[in-house]
Amino acid sequence: MNYFCCPIKTTKTNNEKLQFLIRMGTFYNNAVCDIYMGKGAGAKLMQDIRNAKKNVKIVSPYLSPFLIKELIFLHSRGINIKLITSDEIEDFYGYEKNIHKLIIQNKHVDQKAKETRDNLESLSGTLLFAMIGLAVVLFPLMYLLKDLKYGLGFIIVVLIFFARDSVVKKIRNTKVYHYTYKQLFPFKVFVSPNNNGNSFNKTFIHSKIYVIDDEIAYLGSLNFTGSGVKENHETRIRTTDINAVQKIIEEVKDLFFNSNLAERDIQFWGSQLYDEPGN
């Protein structure tokens, strides 16, 4: 499945986009922080995330399925989650799809179409009964009375067969169900410039930002992936500096709500990820 062709959302004019890109960015000086460099840079991060009491905000262009499960578990505990990622998600084309777990399919019944289909199915059953019944009557008549003129009755059987076949096709083409999609918790999937060559905005969200309970913030190189959290040599800065954390929260909020970067449309994307039986 090629998801690179799915619709993207854009609303602002090119001039408004340019103004955002000019001001896009945050600078804060003299923050008090801890610095870590090396393997296992995500150990403390994961500990803080798992101990979250109110909310978790994550910006990471790449995700691993088992870490998505961590967020789903936090959500089930009532923790508010906000996630920003890209459409170059790790393992996206693998067996276990990340975003699939975060998109909920809602199935809706078209009652009028259902009534039409039920009537067609009833008609199909009546025609089948008539076709079989007439054939059962004609065969003994031809055999017992030795009169081939009763064979002309099979013309009616054939006509009933074609009429029923037409009804069956209408049944198959009558779509009783339609589908909509919603997010398990708020997230954005921004389009990579590599997948949207005609986009005015060439910005790739490459930042890795983690905010826990609006009190702890992490910055660095580690993605929200197994390799980033455990295996790779990564850099990680952790701060509880009130002013620094607030600046980081504002940046994440602006990126989530006001960036106007091209993003994947959840309705189209959901239709690609899920089966949608018509009736």
From TrEMBL:
Record domain PLD phosphodiesterase: where: 201-228
InterPro entries with a match to the protein in the record: PLD-like_dom, PLipase_D/transphosphatidylase
Name the record gives this protein: PLD phosphodiesterase domain-containing protein
Pfam family, one: PLDc_2
Domain of life: Bacteria
Keyword entries, A-Z: Membrane, Transmembrane, Transmembrane helix
Keyword set includes Flavoprotein: no
Molecular function terms from GO: phosphatidyltransferase activity
Biological processes annotated in GO: cardiolipin biosynthetic process
Gene3D superfamilies xref list: Endonuclease Chain A
Annotated transmembrane regions: 122-144, 150-167
